[in-house]
């Protein structure tokens, strides 16, 4: 493991060559260090798109991501926590994979995480999206399609819920929030590394939907069918959820076999998207989930 005491290198987060030479360990103490600035820029969508990278906070998350084979580019580790065996393990794995470890001051970690009391580890990972032909709902699995989801907290919560219920993938349709934004990744609590994500335009989605052989259920405030009625779990199921403000577009609603509604009483016009998706996912997976 080579060690570099220079805190002011202007190199961007390291890109690994295909042959795996060990990464390097560097100390960074200044928030104005160009490496830190570059990593902080990953809070911006434009920079995430340009680099194809994103940030994931937390030691457990980093270790889970490494276990799941996600490609780490840089690990930022709290210098004050380096006595922790787990953190050392994460650092050693990172270096052996050819990626760099930055031993950072608490101030640097807080600046990258954009909050006080940051976690002891922040991983910079390469984004991973899937193609539709990589989705496999099997004979009775569930896929969830989100029409123009806008709120990163909703998306992260939905990914976490989809993971918890064993859904086989989440499809983002149309202009959606970036699943790799800091807020969305935070809300997934690590499920970003577990659930295959596909991004499609509406036209691409409709073409693919034409090839989907299972049950296609849409949720709609004008749905005439109780959400507990469709015969989920007998064939693969594709569940369509609408945008936070405008619901499912007409075209998307027209692509569904059934439009269902979750009955409500009280004053609320509708449920929060993540809550509605949670109810739908667990209903659709009811037959497969056992304590
Ligand atoms: N004003 C929007 C409308 O009329 O469709 C409300 C959208 S709601 C906040 C966001 C999404 O959550 C909906 O498109 C639908 O997918 C789901 N949803 C919320 N409440 C629901 C309910 N009671 N039944 C079925 N789906 C619901």
From TrEMBL:
<protein>
    <submittedName>
        <fullName>RNA methyltransferase</fullName>
    </submittedName>
</protein>
<dbReference type="GO" id="GO:0005737">
    <property type="term" value="C:cytoplasm"/>
</dbReference>
<dbReference type="GO" id="GO:0006396">
    <property type="term" value="P:RNA processing"/>
</dbReference>
<dbReference type="GO" id="GO:0003723">
    <property type="term" value="F:RNA binding"/>
</dbReference>
<dbReference type="InterPro" id="IPR029028">
    <property type="entry name" value="Alpha/beta_knot_MTases"/>
</dbReference>
<dbReference type="InterPro" id="IPR013123">
    <property type="entry name" value="SpoU_subst-bd"/>
</dbReference>
<dbReference type="Pfam" id="PF00588">
    <property type="entry name" value="SpoU_methylase"/>
</dbReference>
<dbReference type="InterPro" id="IPR029064">
    <property type="entry name" value="Ribosomal_eL30-like_sf"/>
</dbReference>
<feature type="region of interest" description="Disordered">
    <location>
        <begin position="1"/>
        <end position="26"/>
    </location>
</feature>
<keyword id="KW-0808">Transferase</keyword>
<dbReference type="GO" id="GO:0032259">
    <property type="term" value="P:methylation"/>
</dbReference>
<feature type="domain" description="RNA 2-O ribose methyltransferase substrate binding">
    <location>
        <begin position="55"/>
        <end position="131"/>
    </location>
</feature>
<dbReference type="InterPro" id="IPR053888">
    <property type="entry name" value="MRM3-like_sub_bind"/>
</dbReference>
<dbReference type="GO" id="GO:0008173">
    <property type="term" value="F:RNA methyltransferase activity"/>
</dbReference>
<keyword id="KW-0489">Methyltransferase</keyword>
<dbReference type="InterPro" id="IPR029026">
    <property type="entry name" value="tRNA_m1G_MTases_N"/>
</dbReference>
<dbReference type="InterPro" id="IPR001537">
    <property type="entry name" value="SpoU_MeTrfase"/>
</dbReference>
<dbReference type="InterPro" id="IPR051259">
    <property type="entry name" value="rRNA_Methyltransferase"/>
</dbReference>
<dbReference type="Pfam" id="PF22435">
    <property type="entry name" value="MRM3-like_sub_bind"/>
</dbReference>
<comment type="similarity">
    <text>Belongs to the class IV-like SAM-binding methyltransferase superfamily. RNA methyltransferase TrmH family.</text>
</comment>
């Amino acid at each position: 493991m080579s060690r570099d005491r220079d805190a002011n290198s202007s190199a961007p987060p390291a890109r690994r060559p295909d042959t795996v030479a060990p990464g390097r360990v560097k100390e960074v103490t200044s928030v104005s260090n160009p490496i830190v600035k570059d990593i902080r820029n990953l809070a911006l969508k434009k920079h995430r798109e340009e680099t194809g990278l994103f940030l994931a906070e937390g030691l457990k998350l980093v270790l889970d991501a490494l276990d799941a084979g996600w490609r780490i580019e840089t690990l930022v580790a709290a210098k004050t926590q380096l006595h922790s065996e787990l953190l050392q393990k994460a650092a050693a794995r990172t270096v052996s994979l050819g990626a760099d470890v930055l031993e950072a001051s608490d101030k640097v970690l807080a600046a990258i995480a954009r909050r006080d009391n940051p976690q002891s580890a922040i991983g910079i990972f390469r984004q991973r999206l899937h193609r539709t032909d990589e989705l496999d709902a099997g004979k009775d699995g569930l896929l969830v399609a989100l029409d123009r989801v806008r709120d990163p907290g909703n998306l992260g919560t939905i990914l976490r819920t989809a993971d918890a219920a064993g859904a086989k993938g989440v499809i983002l349709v149309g202009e959606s929030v970036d699943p790799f934004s800091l807020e969305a990744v935070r809300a997934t609590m690590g499920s970003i590394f577990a659930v295959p994500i596909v991004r499609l335009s509406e036209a691409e989605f409709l073409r693919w939907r034409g090839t989907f052989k299972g049950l296609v259920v849409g949720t709609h405030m004008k749905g005439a069918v109780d959400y507990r009625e469709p015969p989920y779990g007998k064939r693969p199921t594709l569940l369509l959820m609408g945008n936070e403000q405008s619901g499912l577009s007409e075209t998307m609603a027209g692509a569904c076999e059934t439009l269902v509604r979750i009955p409500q009483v009280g004053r609320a016009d509708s449920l929060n998207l993540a809550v509605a998706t949670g109810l739908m996912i667990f209903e659709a997976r009811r037959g497969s989930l056992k304590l």
